[in-house]
Design goal:
Strands 1, 2, 3, 4, 5, 6, 7 and 8 form an 8-stranded mixed β-sheet that branches. The chain has 398 residues and is α+β, with helices and mostly antiparallel strands. 47% of the residues lie in helices and 15% in strands. Strand 1 (124-137) and strand 2 form a beta hairpin. The protein is built from 12 helices and 8 strands. The two termini are 15 Å apart.
């Protein structure tokens, strides 16, 4: 795969800001663990926890430096969200969504970005895929639409939605004949949340549907064309290259949590046959070794591709198709490895794993929910394979 497939050095050093957040995630662990049942039951994050995450800066990982944000590298973003997801998949997912959308601080007009991300210190939720309709009117758009997967919408102050731009009843076309799209931002009080999130995994994300009808959105609150308003390596990266990476961070944390749970369980549970601790069984030792190897290999591949595209963007060069495909491939590999690791851990737990009181039960459900996301699901192997074989990827979203 050309440049992206060449030998590379170990992952970049963790920045001081990311180190601080990783340490903060570890310090939050007892609080998150104590709230685990509530998060599952209520299908949302408790307000107190949301405020702690906000205050510590977990919702602002990609906030522009011009606004006092850290503007973390892609690799550091993964490290931080991985650290949170290790303690709770839903917490990691919600933080990842809000932190990902702080990326748009580098695209919105300065006064609007400042209001949303600095004055309001907002968590932003929503779906960027162009499902809604944005009719052009004087001063902005008249927006109508219903979107799915509004993760964290019950604790978010601002909501976004991807739309197809319309002139009256006709979609507006770009010079190349494709439909023009935009991402619009509106206050949460303007949104109707539809309770749809009745699911097995990642229950605490509260990823409900939401809708608006004929809502006026000023043109200052819309991003059309994805031309950054701020300088910096982060905002030079293609949207559809970096966003799936943020999804891959969560399975890394969940898989690590599963191995943590196995380590604890195997030191206390006795096998029914043989009357020895699980950790003393060669079959368990071998399974844990394979799982650890798979997880570390997938993680290293993801970090390698993230560092590669960051270095290229920092140099001012444009990413190659092969580099973009490698990033997507590494995310898909994380998902595959994550599923395998959790399955191994769940099997080791035996009958204990079926109880909701066992952490492995939650890990299994959360993992298999997380990896259904289009950014990391198995269909990406085909897309990347096409590029490796010298073909077009078959999708514009790469």
């Amino acid at each position: 795969m050309g440049k992206a497939g060449s030998a590379m050095s170990i992952a970049s050093a963790t920045s001081p800001h990311a180190v601080r957040l990783i340490e903060a995630a570890a310090e939050l662990a007892p609080t998150i663990n104590a709230l685990s049942d509530e998060i599952e039951r209520e299908r949302r994050l408790p307000e107190g926890l949301v405020e702690k995450l906000r205050k510590l800066g977990f919702f602002s990982l990609w906030l522009a430096k011009d606004f006092g944000g850290p503007e973390l590298s892609v690799t550091d973003f993964v490290r931080v969200i991985e650290a949170l997801a290790r303690h709770d998949g839903s917490v990691g997912w919600c933080a990842s969504v809000a932190a990902t959308y702080s990326f748009f601080s580098g695209f919105l007009p300065e006064p609007v970005a400042h209001r949303i991300f600095v004055n309001d210190k907002a968590a932003v939720a929503g779906n960027i895929h162009p499902i809604g309709k944005a009719e052009v009117v004087e001063g902005g758009y008249r927006v109508t639409g219903r979107w799915a997967y509004g993760s964290g919408i019950n604790h978010s102050e601002w909501i976004l939605g991807g739309c197809v731009v319309h002139d009256a009843d006709r979609p507006r076309l770009r010079p190349d004949g494709t439909r023009e799209t935009t991402i619009v931002f509106f206050p949460s009080q303007e949104v109707e949340v539809i309770d749809t999130w009745n699911v097995g995994g990642l229950r605490g994300t509260g990823s409900h549907d939401y809708q608006v009808a004929s809502l006026f959105v000023p043109e200052t609150h819309a991003i059309t064309g994805l031309t950054p308003s701020r300088l910096g390596t982060l905002y030079a990266l293609p949207l559809y290259t970096v966003f799936p990476v943020t999804i891959g961070a969560v399975p890394l944390g969940i898989a690590r949590a599963a191995l943590d749970a196995v380590r604890a369980l195997s030191a206390s549970k006795t096998a029914r046959i043989g009357a020895v601790l699980l950790r003393d069984k060669p079959s368990v030792q071998g399974a844990v070794g394979r799982a650890e190897g798979m997880l570390r290999a997938a993680r290293a591949f993801l970090f390698e591709t993230c560092d590669d595209v960051w270095k290229t963007a920092a140099s001012g060069a444009e990413l190659s198709l092969e580099q973009r495909a490698a990033v997507r491939l590494s995310g898909a590999q994380v998902a595959e490895a994550g599923k395998a690791v959790v399955q191994i851990a769940y099997d080791i737990g035996g009958g204990t794993s079926v109880y909701e009181s066992c952490p492995l039960q939650r890990c299994l459900r959360d993992m298999f929910a997380a990896v259904q996301h289009i950014g990391v699901q198995s269909g990406n192997f085909e897309t990347c394979g096409r590029v490796m074989l010298g073909m077009e990827p078959g999708t514009p979203f790469l």
